Amino acid sequence: MKDIFIAKHLSIFIGATILSVQNSYLCNRMSLHQYPSTLLENAVQEFSKLPGIGRKTALRLVLYLLRQDVDDVEAFGNAVVSLKKEVKYCRICHNISDTEVCHICNNLSRDGSIICVVENIKDVMAVENTQQFGGLYHVLGGIISPMDGIGPNDLEIESLVERVKAGNIREIILALSTTMEGDTTNFYIFRKLASYDVKITTIARGVSIGDELEYADEITLGRSILNRTNFTDSFKIN
Ligand SMILES: [Zn+2]
Fold first, then answer.
1. How high is the pLDDT of residue 153?
2. What percent of the chain is modeled with pLDDT above 70?
3. Ligand 1 center to residue 89 CA distance, Å?
4. Domain check: are 118 and 203 in the same one?
5. 173 with 115, same domain?
6. Are residues 73 and 124 in the same domain?
7. Å from CA of 97 to ligand 1 middle
8. How far is the CA of 51 from the centre of ligand 1 (A)?
9. Distance 156 CA to ligand 1 centre (A)
10. CA of 33 relative to ligand 1 center, distance in Å
């Protein structure tokens, strides 16, 4: 009799627990996927398309915008739309620009005989921030990546060959990622430019500043030994 009593109460307890878990799951689903307004839902949907932004962060950003003045929100929206509609790309180096030829290509104090080839606009900014390069750039718009369906014809490689063909180019610096795709692109460009009288270099690859040798991988350390420099060059700024 006592056993039957315990079994009965145990089954009621288990049943209640399952119902409670189901309810909390349903509540969570509702709070994640249901919004009190379609406008809010649409805005969250658009924000969550941005890289690194999940739906929770998107909702936070949208609610923040909702609390701002109309003028501020309009300025935000207009800046995004204008960026897409009005931005130009330099017809020489393909860097982002407000004018047909960018301020770097237009700068006569820069050395027009050296071109640094980079993957994208962010890389131009990265090299510029070093304040160590006084030449011009060429933005490829990506690197050769068969896995992503990106071939040489999808990139600004022919226009680089045209720049070299036009003359007055003394050196091409290949400053691409040190990945297999980067190396493939380097080699493709090297082959394309092999028949022209131009020096082709790559950025140095080796142990990073501040790194301890024992933590450097074998390939990086091996390259550093092969590409060793004169000690007096190691502390030169230019
Ligand atoms: Zn330019």
1. 94
2. 84
3. 8
4. yes
5. yes
6. no
7. 8
8. 28
9. 13
10. 46
pLDDT at 11: 52
Ligand 1 center to residue 194 CA distance, Å?
24
How far apart are the C-alpha atoms of 225 and 2, rounded to whole Å?
82
Contact yes or no for 143/181 (Cβ under 8 A): yes
Q: How far is the CA of 180 from the centre of ligand 1 (A)?
A: 27
Distance 137 CA to ligand 1 centre (A): 7
Kindly state whether residues 75 and 185 are assigned to the same domain. no
Residues with CB under 5 A from ligand 1 (ion): 90, 92-93, 95, 102, 105
**pLDDT exceeds 90 at position 214:** no
Confidence of residue 149 (pLDDT cuts 50, 70, 90): very high
pLDDT at 17: 47
* Residues 70 and 27 reside in one and the same domain: yes
Count of structural domains, the chain? 2
More confident residue, 34 or 159: 159
Task: State which residues form the domain around 33.
Answer: 2-86
Q: What CATH number has the domain bearing residue 32?
A: 1.10.8.420
Give the model confidence (pLDDT) of 26-83 as tens digits. 444 444 567 889 999 999 999 999 999 999 999 999 999 999 999 999 999 999 999 9
Cα–ligand 1 centroid distance for 165 (angstroms): 17
Say what the pLDDT of residue 235 is: 66
The residues facing 111 across adjacent strands are 135
